Amino acid sequence: MRRIGIDVGGTNTDAVLLQDGKVVHAVKTPTTEDVTSGIVTALGLLSGHPEVARGAIDGVVIGTTHFVNAVVQRRHLSPVAAIRIGLPASASLPPFCDWPEDLAALVRGEVIMLEGGHEYDGREFMPFDEAGMRAAARQIRDSGLRSVAIAASFSPLDPSHEERARAILAEECPEASITLSHELGRIGLLERENAALLNAALADLARVTIAGFRDAIAASHIDAPLFITQNDGTVMSAEMAMALPVMSFASGATNSMRGAAFLSGLQDAMVVDVGGTSSDVGQLRRGFPREANSVVEIGEVRTLFRMPDLFSIGLGGGSIVSESPVTVGPQSVGYRLTEEALVFGGKTLTVTDAAVTAAVVKIGEVKNAAGVPRDLARAVLDIAKAKLEDAIDRMKTEAGDVPLIAVGGGAFLVPKKLAGVSEVIRVEHGDCANAVGAAIAQISGETDQVYREMRREDAIAAAEAQAVERAVAAGAERSTLQTVDVEDMPLAYLPGNALRVRVRVAGEMRGPGEH
Amino acid sequence: MRDAAPAMRKITREDIECLAVGAWILGTGGGGSPYLGLLNMRRLYAEGHRVELMSPFDLDGEDRVAVVSNMGAPLVGQERLADSRNIARAVAMQEEYSSVKFRAVMSLEIGGGNGIQPLMAAAHLGLPVVDADLMGRAYPEAQMTSVAVGDLRPYPCALYDPRGLESIVTNVPSWKWMERVTRKICVEMGSIASTCKAPRTGREIKDWGIHFTVSKAIGIGRRVREAQRRHEDPIAAILGEAQGKQLFRGKVVDVARRATEGFLRGRCVIEGLDEHRGARLELAFQNEWVVAWRAEGEKRNPIAMSPDLICVLDTVSGNAFGTETIRYGMRVTVVALPAPPVFLTPKGLEHVGPRAFGYDLDFRSVFA
User: Fold this and answer.
1) Closest partner residue to A494 among B73, B84, B327, by Cβ?
2) Which of A300, A308, A366, B30 would be a feasible disulfide site paired with B288, CB 3.0-4.6 Å?
3) Cβ separation of B75 and A492 shorter than 8 Å?
4) Closest partner CB to B75 (pick from A88, A190, A491)
5) Do the Cβ atoms of B264 and A92 come within 8 Å?
6) How far is CA B94 from CA A131, A193, A371, B105, B343, in A?
7) 8 Å CB contact between A44 and A221
8) Above 90 in pLDDT, residue B152?
9) How remote is the C-alpha of B75 from its chain's centroid?
10) Which CATH number fits domain A80-201: 3.10.450, 1.10.150, 3.40.50, 3.30.70?
């Protein structure tokens, strides 16, 4: 298996070639405004290595923050027609009701609410309003809107009303791009609908961006399928990413943690990714980042996305040092490190300069930092150590000491000994851990459903079987699938042993021709 | 509790934001998140509605008060979003059936989403909200209220579903029967129903209401939000505001849930951190947190139990965690808040003491 992993970050675009479980070559190049040309450059650099040009590539996997940045920065978003199926319930809280006004003003096209939807036990809440949907579809056609989000109550249990709405819309308005909320997940109408609305708002950008990725690969003379990484460390096909761009929202951080697991060979450990401005601390469980507990807000919109649980601190290689009293960060020179740090001939005292003075690392011109007092450098590194220890303690979920994998360009800031840490592990290619994480990303399938009158084990088994089928449909090799998360919850107040089961499985990507 | 609460005061937008935070904490793990109720109130205030809060002692003895709650499964409430008009309709049904004109509305339970329900009804009906409730927290069953302890009349009860399903339970021999019968109706309605309980007189609210709990929830929420803004310790702020005690601090290491008789029961284990390192706290729940045991080596002792309020809070933000949402790995601080005195009598303990939940323990208060 030969796979190229690419991480398109805010500062750098990293690319690696992974062959038979080993990193053959890794490159770094600045990210470009259009994203695509940075990828072409990275692939060009990668192809310069003789091993890379030597054989076929099985897949190119790209991790990108492009879509989440579009939401956060309110750029490249399309107006959306929102269809909610669930009247006469929920009428006082229509679609967009908890969005920040600036974002709603950009995305809110039409809002249409219809009778229909289901109950927790699968009964229809109300019959689906066919005539109303037909009228809505014509209204959307005449409005000129071409991105549509459809959400029906309890659609994760029974998606038929959302699907019927899509069929009618496709008849009346064939060019519409349609997001159904049940494809994005969980129980929680408002949060699921928000995810569908964001997704529909990104439909045009996703088409253009994914096409750009494909062009970049073709321009580099690579003939391989394209995959995009999602929040949970697994991939989706380019076609699916075009339909569901929101699934990629948090993939950058996830990829670096997954890459750390791969490069170190550890499945359970803490990970710290030290960048130029900040450090992210997370925890690996069975090779995957632990997910956040709470509702996740994206660009101030409440969603239920699967996101890694990270604790970020303002400490990186570019963090600015002030004297008397000695403080470190959170201000940083960021991507200007190679111009502004003392060791690069600049005038700003950074954490990197302190590390060079203390002989922790050799970067740039050591003599440029000769004026930095030794004890100041020591004090800076002690502060960095204390900040890291606090962050690690916050994220740990067990009492004993745990191994810590240090990755990222600023990993030299992590000392050999830290409180609560049994061992600090450094790995080759750790500075490109996120691209490695993209290259090794697996394929997953998930279900979240309510089962009634079933034994707990039977309900979980039924959910697992469904998750497996979803993963296989998404391109996973069946024999490698493993269950990575099971959560079951009896429904409070309900009789009949109603049990809500959520299962996620993940496994290796199927090679060409395998099924 | 404050004796000199203002007679009638306007509830501000900020008060409602605070109420949502405070009610979730007083929910003691149950009652459902107040978030959707908060969204309704934001919308009603944006439309120009305003709600006033009145002291229970400003009620006349003969005034009638509507006691409201949203009954059912919080999970269903995540798909059938709270609509402020439904609870107003339940109140109107009760007025029509009982031929009364309500002077004010109040909450059955201040804890969880029901802490906001009376504000929604009040906004539509143009009535004030009484600064009181009948639980002082959240409890799972109809007989777990101060008026049930006082043996006040349990009927009639109005239940409403927006599909035009309207039911009145006109007569039952006891609060436990009211619980059983309304639960069945609620399940048929899709396991959620807007309800208006038996009308109460001003005299009954003065004698049996749990007073100033709306102000209390707002006060707790305000201190938490202030602490969050100033990056201070929100837990300390809660303890100061509500005369509480910190019981434990740690990380959730296990959660086991099971459904029995239509309730969420289970156990949650928290491993100690900081000064609690080496110890464990075990929490039993029936929708709400009921009993807490501290275990260290071979020793295992109950240290807090209903009717004292047991609240499990996010150590960093101070926000509450529910029994449905608590998960492995969460960093939590467990605190106890004092119970309303009505539940500390022998009759009160029969209704909501540890034995009412099936634990053969003599009640010992954290605050004794």
Assistant:
1) B73
2) B30
3) yes
4) A491
5) no
6) 36, 35, 82, 12, 28
7) no
8) yes
9) 16
10) 3.40.50
Separation of alpha carbons A169 and A213, rounded Å? 30
Q: Tens of pLDDT along A285-297?
A: 888 888 775 667 7
Distances (CA, A) of B178 to A489, B73, B154: 27, 18, 7
* Complex ipTM value: 0.90
Q: Helical H runs in A126-250?
A: 130-143, 160-172, 189-201, 203-219, 238-243
Structure tokens at B150: 């006082």
- The CA distance from A506 to B63, in Å, is 62
**What residues are paired with B130 via a beta bridge?**
B54
DSSP run (H or E) holding A458? helix A456-473
CB-CB under 8 Å, B327 with A125? no
The per-residue pLDDT for range B38-68, each reduced to its tens digit, is 999 999 999 999 999 999 999 999 999 999 9
Structure tokens belonging to residue B98: 């009982």
Chain B CB contacts of A490 below 8 Å? 257-259, 264
DSSP state of A147: E
Print the SS3 string covering B24-39: HHHCCCCCCCCHHHHH
Q: Please give the CATH architecture assigned to the domain spanning B8-214.
A: 3-Layer(aba) Sandwich (3.40)
**Helices in chain B by DSSP H: which ranges?**
13-26, 35-46, 74-77, 84-98, 117-125, 146-149, 175-188, 202-208, 213-230, 234-242, 346-352
- Answer yes or no: are the C-beta atoms of A504 and A474 closer than 8 Å: no
To the nearest whole Å, the CA of A177 is away from the closest chain B CA by 25
Count the alpha carbons within 13 Å of A455 in the hemisphere toward its beta carbon. Answer: 3
In chain B, residues with a C-beta closer than 8 Å to the C-beta of A123 are 190
Nearest to A510 by CA among A468, A479, A483, A470: A479
Question: What residue segments make up the domains of chain B, in order of their start?
Answer: 8-214, 234-357
What is the 3-class SS of A336-354, one letter each residue? HHHHHEHHHCCCECEHHHH
Query: Which residue in chain A is spatially nearest to B288 when comparing CA positions?
Result: A492
What sign does the CA torsion over B57, B63, B64, B70 have? negative
Cα A394 to Cα A384: distance, rounded to the nearest angstrom: 16
**Distance (Å) of CA A370 to CA A343, A356, A366, B355:** 9, 9, 7, 74
Contacts of B277 in chain A (CB under 8 A): 399
Distances in Å between the Cα of A485 and the Cα atoms of A447, B75, B112, B342, B346 are 11, 21, 29, 45, 46
Closest by Cβ to A88, choosing from B162, B325, B329: B162
B345 CB burial (10 A radius; 0-12, 13-18, 19+): exposed
Q: Contact B291/B357 with Cβ under 8 angstroms?
A: yes
Q: Mark B219-249 as b/e (b = at least 16 C-beta within 10 Å).
A: bbbbbbbebbeeeeebbebbbebbebbbbbb
Pairwise CB contact (< 8 Å): A91 & B83: yes
Per-residue model confidence as pLDDT tens digits over A146-201: 999 999 999 987 889 999 999 999 999 999 999 999 888 777 899 999 999 999 99
Measured CA to CA, the distance from residue B132 to residue A352 in angstroms comes to 59
> From the CA of B54, how many Å to the nearest CA of chain A?
26
Which among B84, B186, B330 has the least Cβ separation from residue A92? Answer: B84
CATH classification number, B234-357, choose in 3.30.70.890, 3.20.20.300, 3.30.70.20, 2.40.390.10: 2.40.390.10
Q: Do B287 and A187 touch (CB under 8 A)?
A: no
Annotate A51-86 with three-state secondary structure: HHHCCCCCEEEEEECHHHHHHHCCCCCCCEEEEEEE
